[in-house]
């Protein structure tokens, strides 16, 4: 049997041992929990890599590699004769692009093409959206489906259909002009100016439904109370549009106009199909069809790659400046 001092010392030793054991147990549990959390994080990262990895590889293969390959070609002398033995020659191709007089004529025509098309796309689209948004319009669903059809039909089918309609002898457009308006037939596809007008008409037909759909979506979000208050104040229709409709549509329409501008600037399908490759005498080209002809008909690959990079730079600068000047990211509320 232990005396009092020895018993006290034994009790102290047991308590100390228990405390150390408890402390060690807490430390082990903390370390185990930390390891478990790290393990969960790594498993989650591996899962994300498994999901996103194929998409990243696809983007690199489809977007990044062709882009940088095109950049490299734009600094080369690649053409039909040096296809297997091309070499880098510096920025000479860019100088050749700007030195070619035809480039500036096609560039001016491309600007006219883009501006006229986008103005008509937005003007017709917003006008039809406002009309369809009125309460007194009957059969709105049917009208919406009908007006979306030009956009829903594949572009190449529409372009070839319009080409047939512009036929000098048997086209529907000239039949309408001669039989109904009693005016002389127009040489839509053989006169350079009228061929360009024909292409613009076709693209306007194709493009306004997109702007109409975007504007209709924006109109749905405008509170009706604003128009009721304007009616109480005696505001006219144009005043309501200028002070209520357009400011509230602007955050929706500016990105759509930006996209529409880029699409129109690069729309080779309509130009190529309606004019049969820039006819007559390559007078109806825009920049993108000019690039296509230079690359795949004249085999000036290096020059065409340089021009395509110029087009990219033009659209990139336009997008940045346009979005900044229009304050597209700012809300009106």
Question: What topology emerges from the helices and strands here?
Answer:
Elements: H1 4-74, H2 92-99, H3 101-133, H4 140-152, H5 155-165, H6 172-180, H7 192-220, H8 224-232, H9 237-265, H10 268-274, H11 287-296, H12 301-325
Mean pLDDT: 86
CATH superfamily of the largest domain: MetI-like
Structural class: mainly alpha
Shape: flat
Number of separate structural domains: 2
The CATH architecture classification of the largest domain is Orthogonal Bundle
Specify the CATH class of the largest domain: Mainly Alpha
Task: Find the count of extended strands (DSSP E, 2+ residues).
Answer: 0
Query: In this structure, how is the largest beta sheet organized?
Result: none
Helix % is over 70%
Give the DSSP E fraction (strand runs of 2 or more residues): under 5%
